[in-house]
Amino acid sequence: MANLHAAAALSLCLSAFTLMNLCRFVAAVDSSVTLWSTVLPNVVLPETLRQSVSPVEDSQISTRFAKALSRGAVFPSMSAEFCDAADLVCEENVKISSYGLDAEAAAPRASSIKTINDFQFDFFLEQNLVVGGEMHLSENLHDPIPTRAFLPKVVADSLPPLTTANLPKLRQTFNIADKTSMSTMMGTAAYLCENPALPGEDKDCPATLTAMAQFVVSQLGPEVQALSTTGAPAHTPTHQSPVQIESVTKRSLAEGDHIIICHSIMFPSALYYCHHVTGTKVVQASLRASDSSIINAVGICHLDTSLWASEHPAFTALNIPRGAEACHWSTENDVVWVSAGTQ
């Protein structure tokens, strides 16, 4: 009987502990969503971003970690504890297939990235986006980058700027050794984020939900709409088959004249490269995969590619000259922002 009472007491304690942690998580989510709502009161938080809300936004572990950062006293054990609690990816040798390449090729390709446009793949011409037609997609718009949470604001504010000069400090923060695949990808992120935007563009690399919302408002105002690709497979398809184009929506040139594209880029925490671009057209299509699932895809057509690198793969893939219109799909974790009411 005593054992039964002890077991019941233990079960009650575990339930209370679970409930307490659940309440803390909900509070953190509510805090992040509240901050978002203050900046973008009329915009529902996109699901792809909701999944990246930090579970430790207002927790003691975030405060302790931020204080350790400010003292320059982050130890490997503390990094491991924080990475685990904050739902980050702090593995040194991240195994991902990167933008149509296998895992072994991912890190070398990441080191050769010059601009965010070099990340794009699955190019197409708008004229070929016809209902009833077929299209080949390398990964069916599955994002090979693993899911991570955003940094808590208190931690993001305590980190040095994301630059190549600060990489040693940032690698130490997340306990990432040099000459590893994660180290290479962190270097790519730093290179992209510290370089100036292309002529006519503005950019930012938000590491928190609030920072992304603030950039969007600074460029487009608060009346915006978020578009994302949905229905992509949970894993990269093992068998590549063309998708069937079931429906097509071509949004207005007026809307595409000013949009923001936020690309998910690899870093231990969720990190986006957001750039305000002009001279584009947003297209949407329902694509039926070989397993009959439907991918609701969002694509971007760049009307003028004259500023792209001459060796950009789009020119070879589409057999077009530099400067010609080129379109590409966004993957499931990217977010395209358009001004509301201009479709």
From TrEMBL:
Pfam families: BURP
Keyword Methyltransferase included in the entry's annotation: no
Domain (BURP) ranges: 123-340
Key word Transport present: no
Signal peptide per UniProt: 1-28
Keywords: Glycoprotein, Signal
InterPro entries: BURP_dom, PG-associated_BURP
Name assigned to this protein: BURP domain-containing protein
